[in-house]
Amino acid sequence: MPSYPHIPYAPIQYTEAETLVRSQSFHEYMERRRSLRFFSDRPVPKEVIENLVMAASTAPSGAHKQPWTFCVVGDPAIKSQIREAAEAEERESYNGRMSDEWLRDLAPLGTDWEKPFLETAPWLIVVFKKAYDIQGGERRKCYYVSESVGIAAGFLLAAIHHAGLVSLTHTPSPMNFLQKILDRPENERPFLLMPVGYAAEGATVPDLRRKSLEEVSVWW
């Protein structure tokens, strides 16, 4: 198999002082990102969503296989189908599938099985991971699929926040209904369901504290 040609890399470089300021300002900016459940129905141009998807697609991936598909849903009828199916699974989870400990941990967040944001948000982005690829009718292996798609999803969240929009990483379980509703091939598995749009007027979020540097890191 021929190798990729190598081309010169032109890094973006800053002074040490600029690097410190930029790293601090980015942390402060991302600190403001929150998962939101209250969306406005205000339209978001398709071109904006296209840019967000392409930003997510710059993520690294195992052997550069790019094992992801972003299904973007703006059709109200399909959003309604997704909400109905997601709520059916969530209702089962909140009423029997989840352990008592899990429900206790969720209780302070005030979540339940109802997911109106799946219809209110102007767009839903459903991230699928490819268990394997199909090229020329032949099955091709993908590597580090969950890791690669997880990184791409993180890029997508950052891009959404950067655009002044809000989102939520919704994971109804099981999610097989998304594969059926969106008519995805057998090699694709639903990974995340993300509503994208503007925050509703008067939207609120839980008053949470994120872990400190000392709690999340070890230095040697």
Could you say how many structural domains there are in total?
Answer: 1
Count of alpha and pi helical runs: 8
CATH class category: Alpha Beta
CATH domain topology? NADH Oxidase
Radius of gyration: 20 Å
CATH architecture: 3-Layer(aba) Sandwich
The fraction of residues assigned to DSSP E strands is 15-25%
Tell me the number of strands.
Answer: 6
Classify the secondary structure makeup into a structural class.
alpha+beta
Shape, per Cα inertia axes: globular
Rounded to the nearest angstrom, the distance between the terminal CA atoms is 41 Å
CATH superfamily: NADH Oxidase
The largest β sheet comes out as: 4 strands, antiparallel
Task: Give the oligomer, counting copies of the same chain as homo and different chains as hetero.
Answer: single chain
Mean pLDDT: 95
What's a quick, concise take on this entry?
This protein has 220 residues and is α+β, with helices and mostly antiparallel strands. It contains eight helices and six strands.
Mind explaining what this structure looks like?
- With 220 residues, the chain is of the alpha+beta class.
- The protein has one domain: NADH Oxidase (3-Layer(aba) Sandwich).
- It has eight helices and six strands; from the N terminus they run H-H-E-H-H-H-E-E-E-H-E-H-E-H.
- The strands form two sheets. The protein has a four-stranded antiparallel β-sheet.
- The protein is globular, with a radius of gyration of 20 Å.
- The termini are far apart.
